[in-house]
Amino acid sequence: MTEVLLSARNLSVRFGGVLAVNGVSFDVKRGEVFTLIGPNGAGKTTVFNLISRIYTPTAGEIEFENRKLSELAPHDVARLGIARTFQNIELFEHATVLQNLLIGRHTHRETGLWSDIFFTPAARRAEIAAREKVEEVIDLLDLQHHRESLVAGLPYGVRKVVELARALCTEPKLLLLDEPSSGLNTEETDDMVFWIRDIQQELGVTVLMVEHDMSLVSKVSDRVLAMNQGEMLALGTPSEVQSHPGVIEAYLGSVDDVSSLRRAA
Amino acid sequence: MRFIFKTDYAQDIRLAKHGGHVFWYSALLLALLAAPWIVSEYWLAQVTFILIYSIVGLGLMLLAGFTGLFSLGHAAFLGVGAYTQAALTNAGLPFPLAIACAGALSAAVGMVVGLPALRVKGIYLGIATLAFGFIVEEVFARWESVTGGNAGIHIKLPELFGWQLDSGEEFYFLCLVLTVGATLVILNLLRSPTGRAFVAIRDSEVSAQSMGIHLARYKTVSFAISAALAGVGGALYAHKLQFISPDQFNILQSIDLLLMVVIGGLGSVHGAFLGAIFLISMPQVIALSKDQLPDVVGQAPGLQGLVYGLVLIAFVLFEPLGLYGRWLKVRTYLQTFPFYRRGMFKRQKSFQKSERLR
Fold first, then answer.
1. Strand intervals (E) in chain B
2. Angle, nearest 10°, between helix axes B41-60 and B74-90?
3. What is the CATH number of domain A1-73+207-256?
4. Predicted confidence (pLDDT) per residue in A74-88, tens digit
5. What topology is assigned to B40-340 in CATH?
6. Does the beta-carbon distance from A75 to B354 stay under 8 Å?
7. What is the ipTM score, two decimals?
8. CA-CA distance, A85 to A205, in Å (whole number)?
9. Distance from the B121 Cα atom to the nearest Cα atom in chain A, whole angstroms
């Protein structure tokens, strides 16, 4: 439980004149649910994009199981066991749910181009094995009804679950969830709480998540990191962070700000 | 409506999903096998052209329809295949060896062209491949010792294990075998991880990458396979015409090929065949109707171009899924009769996507 899975050291990234992330350091321990919170533009999604190598940090380093991520190409990150979802859902729209999930098995493929072209018995066995794995995820997340549907025709809430399922199909060690509850109604958000707990407790997957819904955050998170304008504000248990004066100020503004607005009595 | 109750994963993977598929595709194959005895020599030649264009169309469909990379210079690959075949056949190589070389050389050229595709997207890729098409056409015209320059080059009859294919029927069967082979290659790819990686790249590159798909590798592979099929098609094309010259592989041919997959229906294997049928039969239809039309219209130059243009505009506006999309609607209408609704195929509003990352 105390072993460090992912550690970010002095992480900074600059886009032109904007310092989107400034000297952020944190450790994610194996088996925990670690949440990043903060107002819009705090740099939470940027941290995600740094981990999945879509951006390269200007300074600092991220290590996953003692391997430096900066030495890897973006497509190699998945191979290490890091899977992610996106804030605005990036599914393969014109493919079925099943095909989307099978793409999640890509890092586990055993066949090469030629055995695919001739669809050799080995390729056939690999296809069936991949479907068996995918079926476990379908069962876990109750997607049986949508197995053959095109993603383009699915409602938003279901897409969100399909994206989570696709990430799980890669059998990750670390799951990055970018706002898992955004756009979901309260019932769907409750389901998400159960699933995140299941993923953590039954599958033993470590979860790093960005989330705005504080009730979800406090229900599932072991530790929370609050960020504001690219900098770290507070790190601790959900209740510690929620009562941290800096966090309250970042969300609500300080007493001084408010008093200057108050009319002189 | 047909409902398939799946009890086995093998059912998911099988090419023929149900009895109807088996029946209709067997019937089609039987009809094609019997064609030389049913249709006249002229129409058999047209069917041969349809088969040749289908092979090329399958390749372009893989690239444009399934990987989402548009090539405006595909005629160049056709040309590379055709000229390789001409040079090697005339040098005395047997047909199987020559066509394997034609496909392989085309694939190699395709990989080289695929390299800029790793950096540019959309319209810029179109421009890059267009430029490549012009360069290759120029090479065909200037490299006279191999290609015969603008005067063109004749090609000997294909020879298969000491057996000369000198009749239209024999060549037709050769094309049929290669077409079936090419179709199986594409279908196998599409039901395996490689094909799914192509589709993933088409629909969302950033997400394909985060699933561990090596974008550069798969884009190059897609270009190579697509070019190889175009090369094989080009080799058959050269044999069919028995004479090739650089102007057969110009920009107009490239546009014809793209027209073929767009009208057939991007993203469907059927589309490649429907597009090929359209591309070959349209000039015939126009020629037949010329006599019925008043001379002002019928004899006007550029009638074919006008009709093609109008058809393309009509498809883009009213049936973006092409002929195959139209067929799907007709089939659904018949299957669900009388419950078909107009809105059934209406495209869903797509949700906001993160433009920033692409």
1. 153-154, 159-160, 163-164, 243-244
2. 120
3. 3.40.50.300
4. 999 999 999 999 988
5. ABC transporter involved in vitamin B12 uptake, BtuC (1.10.3470)
6. no
7. 0.89
8. 14
9. 18
Helix, strand, or coil (residue A4): strand
Most B CBs within 10 Å, among A76, A116, A160, to test the B interface: A116
Quote the CA–CA distance of B144 and B154 in Å, as a whole number. Answer: 13
Query: What angle separates helix A186-201 from helix A156-169, to the nearest 10 degrees?
Result: 10
Partner-chain contact B206 A118, CB within 8 Å: no
Residue type, A31: G
- The CA distances from residue B323 to A168, A184, B330, B356, in Å, are 38, 38, 11, 34
pLDDT tens digit sequence for B117-130: 778 887 888 899 99
- Report which residue type is found at A191: D
Q: Which sequence spans correspond to the domains of chain B?
A: 40-340
Residues of chain B positioned with their CB less than 8 A from the CB of A102: 193, 196
To 10 degrees, the CA torsion angle through B92, B97, B100, B104? -70
Q: Which residue has the tokens 């002189």?
A: A264
Q: Do B194 and A113 touch (CB under 8 A)?
A: yes
- Per-residue pLDDT of chain B (358 residues), as tens digits, is 567 788 888 888 888 888 888 999 999 999 999 999 999 999 999 999 999 999 999 999 999 999 999 899 999 999 999 999 999 999 989 999 999 999 999 999 999 988 877 788 878 888 999 999 999 999 999 999 888 888 889 998 888 877 777 788 899 999 999 999 999 999 999 999 999 999 999 999 999 999 999 999 999 999 999 999 999 999 999 999 999 999 999 999 999 999 999 999 998 999 999 999 999 998 888 888 888 888 777 777 788 888 888 888 898 888 888 888 888 888 888 888 887 777 667 654 444 444 444 4
Domain residue spans of chain A = 1-73+207-256
10 Å CB burial of residue B328 (0-12, 13-18, 19+) is middle
